[in-house]
Amino acid sequence: MNLKHPKDKILNQIRVVTELDLENEIDEMENAVEDHARESLRRRRHLVWGNRTLWFVALTAVAIALSYVVLLQMPEGGEVTFLSMLVVCLIGYILGPAEGVCGAALFGLFKYFIDYGMVQTNFAELWDYLIGYLLLGICGVLANTQMRSRRTGRMEYLLGLRSSMTIAVLLRFLESVWNYLYFYPVPGMSFAAQLKEAVIYCSIYIFPELVFSLIVLSVPAVMKAVQFLRIMANEDYAERYDYY
Asked: How would residue 12 be classed by pLDDT, with cut points 50, 70 and 90?
């Protein structure tokens, strides 16, 4: 009959207890790491999701940066940029009318002070930068205006992003033509001739960027991304958005 020495039994018990304690410690460490990862992810999501101030600053900064990616520079001022007008319009579309108007005005002021500095004052250009770009904020006003549908009885948006942007850019175009006629009159030239020149000149740098922007917005993936940004900027995170 083989009996284990009591010392061996004690050692085996200690070994079993030690292994169990080690497994428990490992499980606790793994749980702690998972909890830390979840908390870190929650904080990062909270930083981005529903943080309207962050998105306002980010979109305004992106618009300013893109305004210096110039595709066509006009000799007397004005340029075709890489979708900067689109991003300015997106501020209001994503965040709302007030933020859209403020963002467009800040965009114009920042561009003016970057281009002309704090010392030099050019009232004609200041007016064009401030009022001209501020009118792009109208896109957010139009795109967020709702009316009750007679057909369904529900509140529906009056205009979409592309229609709202087109109207806003047309308003900017009219302001640019007025600015051209008022601040830069040509002595001896008839009003009709000056108007024709202003319309042609302003059309060359405003409408190509509008057309380019509308083409980009016609891509379904782009509009889906814009709608996702609209949700992300205004709502808290939810798991259902993982499959958007």
From this structure: low
CA angle 147, 150, 151 (to 5 degrees): 120
The arrangement of secondary structure in 51-243, i.e. its CATH architecture, is Orthogonal Bundle (1.10)
Q: Encode pLDDT of 48-73 as tens digits.
A: 888 899 999 999 999 999 999 999 98
For 218, the 3-state DSSP assignment is coil
CA angle 92, 94, 99 (to 5 degrees): 40
55: which 2 tokens? Answer: 């998105």
End-to-end CA distance of the chain: 71
- Name the DSSP class of 51: -
Cα 164 to chain centroid, rounded: 16
Q: Residue 31's pLDDT band (boundaries 50, 70, 90)?
A: low
Q: What count of Cα atoms within 13 Å lies in the side-chain half-sphere of residue 78?
A: 24
pTM over 0.90: no
What is the amino acid identity at position 104? A
Phi, psi of 122, rounded to the nearest 5 degrees: -125, 95
- Hey, how many other C-beta atoms are within 10 angstroms of the C-beta on 206? 21
What is the helix (H) or strand (E) element at residue 67, kind and residue range? none
